Amino acid sequence: MKGELVIVAVGDIRSGQEDPVAMFMHTASVLRKADLTIGNLEGPACDRGQPIPGKVEQGSRHLRSVPHVVPALASVGFDAVGLANNHAMDYSADGLLQTMELLEKAGIAHAGGGRNLADARRPSILERDGTKVALLSYTSVFPIAGFAATSNTAGIATVRAVPSFRPSPRVFYEPGSPMITMTAADPMEAQRMAEDIREAKRVADIVVLFMHWGVAGGYGRIVDYQKELGRLAIESGADLIIGHHAHQLLGMEVYKGKVITYSVGDFAFDLWISYFGSESILVKAYVREKAIQKVTFLPVTLDAKRCPHILKMPEGMDVVRKLEKMSEEFSLVLTPEGDEVVIRGTKD
Questions:
Q1: Do 247 and 277 form a contact (C-beta atoms < 8 A)?
Q2: pTM of the predicted protein model
Q3: Which residue ranges make up each domain of the chain?
């Protein structure tokens, strides 16, 4: 439509292949057609740096993409990536800084990682046809040491979540029952994120927030701090929130007329662990008169090589029904229109 801007956003991306472009052969046409295409680059794209100590001992792994994934992303249409995630510093500051250099050389904007804290918190501003779109990227999932940027060290933008525990009501009836875990955002870091969003909104028409959060392999659970941060972000001026980290789909919410996707799933991710899902979505935001007027998604499936394929209707209805079920607490309405699915709240 004339005068319309289309923003496409997808989830986690990682490739160790000789030809990363091949991972996008079934989706490149959609990625290139959008006015702005954004994804989460999970881990650095580098061949520099040493594995950061302590990661394996915390039950995780070191993860990176080949450096030439960056020009591959540019060639299939990516305009920007989020960098704030729990693998961004796996190969120390050297790996992150090489990634940033490669992105800048390829003309891909980035947010969430930086040479210092101010750099990591700074939004990337992308302009199309007079409309300015700000991208911010944060993670609530990261090792305690060595990942968060400081005033004088490279790293990523973080919003900590703080756990607390209480006994299960069954503990006296059935001793040994597991504790109930509750979570809340760190107040200072949450307010810092809110300030960044408000500042981005002062200089841009639209703010897109990438959030790496939640529980990987959490069996569909959206934890308390995710709702807290998502709603705070909307109240502070965010127009669209794209969540990732779970490596599977999670529910969606429309809050104050704005869409929060708690996890859009992996998009192109050539690594598999037993809890990784094969379903994903490609989110499309339609912008007119410098505001998001409609948000839709295309259902996606990942093949055995973890490459994405867009599902046409009615094949995509399994993804739609799954998201409806996962979003029941939010009274979400998902309406297929052609091959796309419109996201609405019940009060829209």
A1: yes
A2: 0.95
A3: 5-345
